[in-house]
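Before a computer can learn anything about folding, someone has to put a protein's shape into writing. The outcome of that step, for a single protein, is printed below:
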Amino acid sequence: MKKEKSLRHRLMRKYRLTIHNENKLDNVLGFYVSPLGVIMSLFISLLLVAGTVYLIFAFTPVAEYLPGHVSDRTRERLINYALTIDSLKDEVNKHERYLSNIRNIFEGNIEYGDTASALDTIPSLHDYPIERSETEQLFVEGYEEREKYNLTSQATNVGALQGINFYRPTQGLVTRGFAPKEGHYGIDIAGNPGESIVAIWDGTVIMSDYTANDGYTLIIQHSEDLVSIYRNCHYLLKGIGDKVVAGEAIATADGTGEEDKENVKPYLHLELWHRGLPLDPNIYIAF
């Protein structure tokens, strides 16, 4: 008890601190202090310094200059920079692929069936069609002459086709109608380049190839002895033997036309044949 009272007495004992001016031999300032007051003053000062330092690092950019410390704002900027760099890399890759395709086109390294090759070769083949040989011409003329007097083929019945809901092969207006007397055995439908061409009915693909006069052509055999022909396509999506359903995409529209060479417009030439006779698609399909 005596020791505790002695320690408390020492902490609470007051000392007089005086500032003396030697020139004037006068006391300038004087006040009383105690050891406990000095300790409390130092503790409060330490708390104030620590709080001030915390506020500076928490609400000012000073902490960003410390090694190993990354602020939220800096982290956000780094993420935005990373996303921008990825986007730039994608654009650079696209330009590199584009330049590579152009270089391959000029060097002739495009494989058959490639889109770039098709776009480059189809117009020239349309300008210089492959002529029929003499044997082919004689066969066609003989067949047409025989079929002209074939009453059985002329008496075909298409009544079974009236109740079928055919799909529209592509969007667009009919630019040229059915004119068999002029050698135009189908209709031309205007469209947009790259637009999908769909099958008008369920069936099986019996031809999917490139022809000199009509570009990429696809033929589908349907039931009821019906055949649909899609000429002047841009890219074929189905091959021979593939089963298709009504409304399924089978090709894409092309941009080559024969009537207007200077201002080429895309179109699809659609034909319907029933037992060897051409039918007007406008009668069976709503355009």
About this structure: The first strand starts at residue 15 and ends at 21. Residues 112-128, 151-156, 257-262 have pLDDT under 50 and may be disordered.
